[in-house]
């Protein structure tokens, strides 16, 4: 590496880095499915960032110990990530004209993963920059990858800590890109991203505290976990998660690192939560203070045929239908909360409205959860908040060791900011939901605190309109006044028609 003195470059702001990164996406936009090209862009951002951090540290240590390469090397061993010779972004950039460019990038990522096995094991395994199926034949693939490297080599995308300042800028840029990709990806976006306003609302409702263990068993790219972690207000927490899609799991791992979230590699597992839970302690499931998730709605083929023999006995209340896995996720989440009242186990889950009223096995499970006094609140959300579906959804809050048997119903479906593609919750909408949830008071046409007896009288149906009356009385119509107005308008129309006929006659156009 060329020896240079360490100098601090000009600072960068959030809007600037977001704009440069989104422009870099032009390399793939229109040629690769948005749900796929996000992986290449986000991996390249991660590589560029750790390369810039590594280079800045190297130059700083060189300036500090100009006559001792050995001390520089020892210092570098303690940095967050180790980058082998020839594997950083700039070494790859120097080979941008190579005929095997995709292979070069893959080999560099493999070397970085191998050198940082405890942190990055498997993170780059699910993506190949040398894939003909994804990036085209050799000539086309090389051109696209060269353009991508050029896009990331611009001066404005210098991501050194002395220029970026807070690591939040990089983490926020990563989140910004994920949100933009979700907007482009349509239906597939729901597989990896929860809108930030909904994540913020769920995090605030669950109110994680210092020392809490926080888990998302369907964590996607990790946005909800990060919102929950930020809600704590300190670094005294740990986050855990599981994700079935390997590429999305890798994005989550990188997202955790870029946000400096307090977690370890083995706390974010890659696998199917319902059929193969991997967050285990001893012979049982790992337990948590807070469990939050936006699982796939009404998941088909979730493993119902094996549920009755589940080794962790999660489905003792009943087995959900094989074509609708909503209650499978709900019961899994509840069974992973702490039983100890001092640990304050609580669950927040986003569900389709069918969960509130469907019968058969789902109705039986719902009744048992209510009879066990676990359900704390049902919050109806506006339609078209989520990527991939326009249907309205609800948030269910469950708590261990509740003070009473009441369930709070909130109808927040009518308060939102309309959007061309997605609606969104505004800060005032989030705040009203939170204030109402904390107060647990009935508010006309918005909230109702129902007792267990009332819910039982409704056959354990949780459909929100059964509890929150939002009916608006229509204004009384004065039929006589309307009839008189019609008569007046007809008279005015007759006068206009007569004048029009006279004008046409004068012009000789009345034939």
Low-confidence stretches: 1-6
Reported for the largest beta sheet, the result is: 9 strands, mixed
- CATH class of the largest domain reads Alpha Beta
Q: Report the CATH topology name of the largest domain.
A: Rossmann fold
Number of strands: 11
Spatial sequence of strands, sheet with the most strands: 3-2-1-6-7-9-8-10-11
Mean model confidence by pLDDT: 88
Corresponding CATH architecture of the largest domain: 3-Layer(aba) Sandwich
List the helices and strands and how they pair.
Blueprint: H1 14-24, H2 34-64, H3 69-76, H4 89-93, H5 101-115, H6 117-120, H7 132-135, H8 138-152, H9 161-164, H10 167-185, H11 196-206, E1 213-216, H12 223-232, E2 238-243, H13 246-258, E3 268-270, E4 280-281, E5 284-285, E6 290-293, H14 304-307, H15 326-335, E7 346-352, H16 354-357, H17 360-371, E8 375-380, E9 393-399, E10 407-411, H18 427-439, E11 447-450, H19 452-457, H20 479-506
Structure description:
- By secondary structure, this protein is an alpha/beta fold.
- The chain is built from 20 helices and eleven strands.
- The chain folds into three domains: 175 residues, Ferritin (Up-down Bundle); 275 residues, Vaccinia Virus protein VP39 (Rossmann fold, 3-Layer(aba) Sandwich), CATH 3.40.50.150; 35 residues.
- The strands form two sheets. Strands 3-2-1-6-7-9-8-10-11 form a nine-stranded mixed β-sheet, with helices on both faces.
- Helix 2 runs parallel beside helix 13, helix 11 crosses helix 12 and helix 11 packs parallel to helix 18.
- The longest helix has 31 residues.
- The termini are far apart.
- The N terminus is likely disordered.
